[in-house]
């Protein structure tokens, strides 16, 4: 719920598993939250998935029926279930059998199979150290957001801690080997938008597979260091032929843009 506004920005991502090839309908309703009494209905809209092309992010401006205003949403229909989150103890690339299968999937002899499936990247977000204190208590409530193109996943929040341990594994499909992996640490604020604590940007082509590395957190513009380091271990497995062909096609537009936030610091 976003209080006291007629132009809310939710920036929430939901993943649904579709079992119907033909598509189906997604219905979205908007409500006004009323404390102590019944919530007011503000409108609905319906998306016919069969009208949308696959493997492409569609930006839709949908007028609310039975209400006023427009809902702006992004919809991507993709055949891959490779965007996932798991704990450090259960991750696919540490299992030799699974790793072999994935390596086979992106081997050169399968270069012409599913051209859009260029590769896979696995990011282990282990921990951070020496973060900035964003709260008046001298602590922060840090969580970490990992983004690759229009895919965005986040860890849980570790409360009142400047040296949080997340131990999460994120898996993304690679659509473009020239894309840059962005890892951002925020301080959760219950009543307001999260405060920025630092970020790193790592081009996929610069990654040394399986190397656990401490990255110094930088400012929003990546111009200089902020406080703290983050420990990541990243693996990229990709098919060079598909990556080369994909380089010749236009890059997917990045839709999720952050609005500038003023940190109380």
Automatic annotation (TrEMBL):
Signal peptide: none annotated. It comes from the Eukaryota. Keywords: Calcium, Membrane, Metal-binding, Transmembrane. The keyword Secreted does not apply. Residues 1-64, 96-217 form the C2 domain. SUPFAM superfamilies: C2 domain (Calcium/lipid-binding domain, CaLB). SMART domains: C2. The keyword ATP-binding does not apply. Gene3D superfamilies: C2 domain. Belongs to the MCTP family. This is Multiple C2 and transmembrane domain-containing protein 1. It comes from Ilyodon furcidens.
């Amino acid at each position: 719920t976003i209080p006291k506004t007629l132009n809310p920005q939710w920036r929430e991502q939901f993943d649904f598993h579709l079992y119907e090839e033909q598509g189906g309908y997604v219905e979205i309703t908007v409500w006004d939250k009323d404390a102590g009494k019944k919530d007011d209905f503000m409108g609905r809209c319906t998306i016919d998935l069969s009208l949308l092309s696959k493997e492409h992010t569609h930006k839709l401006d949908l007028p609310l029926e039975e209400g006023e205003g427009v809902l702006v949403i992004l919809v991507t229909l993709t055949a891959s279930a490779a965007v996932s989150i798991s704990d450090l103890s259960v991750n696919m690339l540490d299992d030799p059998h699974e790793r072999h299968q994935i390596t086979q999937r992106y081997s050169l002899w399968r270069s012409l199979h599913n051209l859009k499936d260029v590769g896979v990247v696995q990011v282990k977000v282990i921990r951070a150290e020496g973060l900035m204190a964003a709260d008046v208590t001298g602590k922060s409530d840090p969580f970490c957001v990992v983004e690759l193109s229009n895919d965005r996943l986040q860890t849980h929040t570790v409360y009142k801690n400047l040296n949080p341990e997340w131990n999460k594994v994120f898996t993304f499909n690679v659509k473009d080997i020239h894309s840059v992996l962005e890892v951002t640490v925020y301080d959760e604020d219950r009543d307001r938008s999260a405060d920025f604590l630092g970020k790193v940007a790592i081009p996929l082509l610069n990654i040394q597979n399986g190397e656990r590395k401490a990255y110094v957190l930088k400012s929003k513009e990546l111009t200089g260091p902020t406080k703290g380091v983050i420990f990541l271990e990243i693996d990229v497995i990709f098919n060079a032929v598909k990556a080369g062909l994909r380089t010749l096609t236009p890059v997917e537009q990045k839709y999720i843009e952050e609005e500038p936030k003023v940190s109380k610091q």
